[in-house]
Design goal:
Shape: elongated
Strand content: 15-25%
Distance between the termini: 63 Å
Keywords: DNA-binding, Transcription, Transcription regulation
Protein name: Transcriptional regulator
CATH class of the largest domain: Alpha Beta
Structural class: alpha/beta
Order of helices and strands: HHHHEHEHEHEEHEHEHEHEHEHEE
GO molecular function: DNA-binding transcription factor activity; transcription cis-regulatory region binding
CATH topology of the largest domain: Rossmann fold
Number of domains: 2
Largest sheet: 6 strands, parallel
Organism: Sanguibacter keddieii (strain ATCC 51767 / DSM 10542 / NCFB 3025 / ST-74)
Number of helices: 13
Oligomer: single chain
Radius of gyration: 23 Å
InterPro entries: Cro/C1-type_HTH, HTH_LacI, LacI/GalR-like_sensor, Lambda_DNA-bd_dom_sf, Peripla_BP_I
Length: 351
């Protein structure tokens, strides 16, 4: 299938090899949401095989765009959960390159600083759009970009006080944290645990509230079905994120008159601290984290894996669609995570 004459591949040559029109190839590059999945896969396979790359200068002349996307690098925390955004960034950059776009990274300490960087980049750099991460209640960044009609997509939904997540004001992609922690809790209940605790961030974080909801929903369903789950108010522990904080939660749980035998955590950092503390006390506490970081795999920690390559792909599709046609934001995408079971939550002696 690959060309053999040494010539630079063109839209026409790719179209001929894939058996489609030039317009279809153009749609694959610029508006993939308009192309059927089977055709999209076939054309992309040809693009990869012949090494096609859009001619950036020509595209800029036609579209008057720079094909540059801005993204803020989140501050470094404990070096564990930051790996999640590292994997998303890699997938986003790779996908952007395949479409002829470049990703420009910048740093900021908070939302105010990030907005200041938006303003600076828009004033001094040819930049077309932004990708945002870490959405939260009252997010000023999305309001600022929307007011100025600047294209953007968020990895994270627009959290609202009434619980609505289908805000049509902008395009977003997110992972269903509620489904993730529900799966983790159900896994532990099926293993025979009846006292399953939760360690998560203080109420009000949006993402953390969703993950807590999944745990609570699973316990309520188990109680309604078979009556094994009693009141769980003493098992819900709110704490800042971190390894030390996870260990402190276990210290508190073990002081209960009827301590839990299992724990679901809102992050791998909390889970790692909890796992270390339980082992230090000689307690066979089953633990499940969230994000399936490399550390989780290394220490045998069960965790919830986010489909980060799919998140990046869905983010780019929505962003490119905006840039190509100036159309209304695409339908939000809520993707499903998966439970990765390792030895930290496999059946063991229960009290």
């Amino acid at each position: 299938m690959a060309r053999t004459d040494g010539a630079r591949p063109t839209l026409a040559s790719v179209a001929a090899l894939a058996g489609v029109s030039r317009q279809t190839v153009s749609n694959v590059l610029n508006e993939p949401a308009r192309v059927q999945a089977q055709t999209l896969a076939r054309v992309r396979a040809v693009l990869d095989e012949v090494g096609y790359r859009p001619h950036l200068a020509a595209r800029q002349l036609r579209t008057r765009r720079s094909n540059v996307i801005g993204l803020r690098l989140e501050p470094v925390t404990d070096g564990i959960n930051g790996a999640v955004l590292d994997r998303f960034l890699h997938a986003l950059t790779e996908g952007a390159q395949d479409r002829g776009y470049r990703v420009v990274l910048f740093t900021a300490d908070d939302d105010t600083g990030e907005i200041a960087r938006y303003r600076e980049l828009l004033d001094t750099t040819d930049i077309d759009a932004f990708v945002l991460t870490g959405t939260h209640h009252g997010d000023a960044r999305t309001a600022w970009l929307t007011e100025r009609d600047i294209p953007f997509v968020t990895f994270g939904r627009p959290w609202t006080t009434d619980g609505a997540h289908d805000d049509p004001s902008h395009a977003w992609v997110d992972v269903d944290g509620c489904a993730g922690t529900r799966a983790a809790t159900e896994h532990l209940l099926e293993a025979g645990h009846r006292r399953v605790a939760f360690a998560g961030w203080p109420v009000g974080s949006g993402t953390g509230d969703e993950r807590r909801l999944g745990w609570r929903t699973a316990l309520e369903a188990a109680s309604a079905d078979a009556g094994p789950a009693a009141d769980c108010s003493d098992l819900d522990h709110q704490t800042p994120d971190g390894v030390a904080e996870g260990a402190q939660v276990v210290e508190q749980l073990l002081r209960l008159d009827d301590p839990p035998t299992a724990l679901v955590c809102a992050s791998d950092s909390l889970a790692l601290g909890a796992l270390e503390a339980s082992r230090a006390h000689g307690v066979p506490l089953a633990v499940v984290g969230f994000d399936d970081t490399p550390v989780a795999a290394a220490v045998g920690l069960s965790s919830i894996a986010q489909p980060l390559v799919d998140v990046a792909e869905a983010t780019l599709e929505r962003l490119v669609a905006q840039l190509a046609g100036g159309q209304a934001p695409a339908t939000p995408a809520l993707l499903h995570p998966r439970l990765v079971v390792r030895r930290s939550s496999t059946p063991g002696p229960l009290r």
